[in-house]
Write a structure and sequence with these properties.
The chain is of the alpha/beta class and 456 residues long. It has three domains: 121 residues, Probable tRNA modification gtpase trme, domain 1 (Gyrase A, domain 2, 2-Layer Sandwich); 127 residues, Four Helix Bundle (Hemerythrin (Met), subunit A); 160 residues, Rossmann fold (3-Layer(aba) Sandwich), CATH 3.40.50.300. It is built from 16 helices and 13 strands.
Length: 456
């Protein structure tokens, strides 16, 4: 596969001022040379890293397709560490597709999703952590996520993991040297080993703890709006989004299915879900919508439980609050612009201490305060950006490392033989190898790069 020369459009679908087609492989320059003609032929054809102006030509039809720039990146000083050529033309999808067709006709093959970055990884340009950061940066939904991903692409997380690896190797070397050559008195002693293990465990634990913040930034948190029919859930949904996304009527049961939209509050992504109201369904479709809503509520990261403050609480309200009191929820007393009839104290007691806020979704009252309450209650607490990790794969491997270190500390504390806890340290090194991609697992590689867009 690495012997092929690959080609792909590297700019997003749609119309734009510029579009880029990227070619990588041993024959990248030869392929580009067959479809590109420089306007003023340079002394040395296609100088490195200097754009050359010319035209894309269809040699079979002997016609010029478009004006373009060709930029040549000579191996190994390129993104993939192979010869890379970028053709920059006008950003018409039709033009870019023809360039792609001309390139494949000239000897290149269409690239698979993520194949350029896969080659960068396989050729040693990036490790696995940096490769994952490439995709994170492309798909960033907030400035904070983009900043974290950019640092990790630059190697911040990789350097941290390699420092951890170096400390593990030093510890294991001391333990094994003491076992192999006891007469040399190379061992530093159990207390010193325990201090080292505890220090390493604390470092890994900080990263594991940073995953929840990373998940909130990368994947977002699902926040379901639930409550009885006609309490104003859809009006609240629209007010939070600042657009009329859900249909609102004075008639109960208007929302029969669920709506899902993205809401970003202070760089944290929430997937806001408006669902059918709870109550006696008047139609089989509404009944199915209620069942779907209950499933979403059970699986959501958090709930906005909406109550009508202008009406006395019903048995349905009480059952709803009691049912979800074990989940993370925020009580929203809606219609606070009307005379109050709900028993707040009783509802708060049923909710087991969950916070509450008064709003009027119709009048827009306290909506900004509600957004702040959502951010404060549901988003992870403050975490240093350098401690944030963005992937479940990374978290799972770090968790396994942490557990191995804890087992090693336990064995050491109980006075077991050094051979036993040395084996746990050795297992940590294998896990670090998986984390950085030094230990290659084909299924993991396919999964990671399969999620990339074509052209990157």
């Amino acid at each position: 596969m690495l012997e092929d020369t690959i080609i792909a459009i590297s700019t997003p679908p749609g119309f734009g001022g510029l579009g880029i087609v990227r070619i990588s492989g041993k024959r990248a320059l030869a392929v580009a040379g067959r479809i590109f003609q420089a306007k003023n032929k340079p002394k040395k054809p296609f100088p490195v890293r200097r754009p050359v102006f010319g035209t894309i030509r269809d040699l079979e039809r002997e016609t010029a397709l478009d004006e373009a720039f060709l930029t040549y990146f000579k191996a190994p000083r390129s993104y993939t560490k192979e010869d890379v050529v970028e053709l920059s033309s006008h950003g018409s999808p039709a033009v870019l597709e023809v360039i792609l067709r001309l390139g494949t006709g000239a000897g290149a093959r269409l690239a698979q999703p993520g194949e350029f970055t896969l080659r960068a990884y396989l050729n040693g340009r990036l490790d696995m952590l940096q490769a994952e950061a490439v995709n994170d940066l492309i798909r960033s939904v907030s400035l904070t996520q983009a900043r974290i991903s950019s640092r990790q692409l630059g190697g911040s997380l990789s350097r941290r993991i390699f420092r951890l690896r170096g400390k593990l190797i030093a510890l294991l070397s001391r333990v094994e040297a003491g076992l192999e050559f006891p007469e040399e008195k190379l061992r530093t002693g159990a207390p010193a080993d325990r201090r080292t293990i505890d220090s390493l465990a604390a470092e890994v634990e900080r990263l594991v703890a940073g995953y929840e913040a990373g998940r909130a930034l990368r994947e977002g948190l699902t926040l379901a709006i639930t409550g009885r029919t006609n309490v104003g859930k859809s009006t609240l949904f629209n007010a939070l989004l600042e657009e009329d996304r859900a249909i609102v009527t004075p008639f109960p049961g208007t929302t029969r299915d669920f709506l899902r939209e993205k809401l970003v509050i202070d760089d944290i992504l929430f997937h806001l879900v408006d669902m059918a109201g709870l109550g006696k369904p008047a139609h089989p479709v509404e009944k199915k919508g209620i069942a779907r809503g209950q499933k979403i509520a059970r699986e959501a990261d958090g709930l906005l439980v909406v109550l009508d403050a202008s009406r006395k609480e019903s048995g349905e309200d009480e059952r709803l609050v009691r049912k979800y009191r074990a989940k993370k929820m925020l009580l929203v007393f809606n219609k606070s612009d009307l005379p109050e009839k709900v028993d707040r104290r009783m509802i708060r007691a049923l909710a087991g201490g969950s916070p509450s806020i008064d709003v009027s979704a119709l009048k827009g009252r306290n909506i900004d305060k509600l957004r702040a309450a959502i951010r404060g209650h549901f988003a992870p607490g403050p975490v240093k950006e350098e401690d944030v990790i963005l992937h479940a794969r990374q978290k799972d491997l770090l968790q396994a490392i942490l557990e191995a270190l804890r087992r090693a500390a336990g064995l050491l504390a109980k006075g077991h033989s050094a051979e036993l806890y040395a084996e746990e340290i050795r297992s940590c090194l294998a896990l670090v190898g998986e984390l950085t991609g030094q230990v290659r697992i084909d299924e993991v590689i396919d999964d990671i790069f399969g999620r990339f867009c074509v052209g990157k």
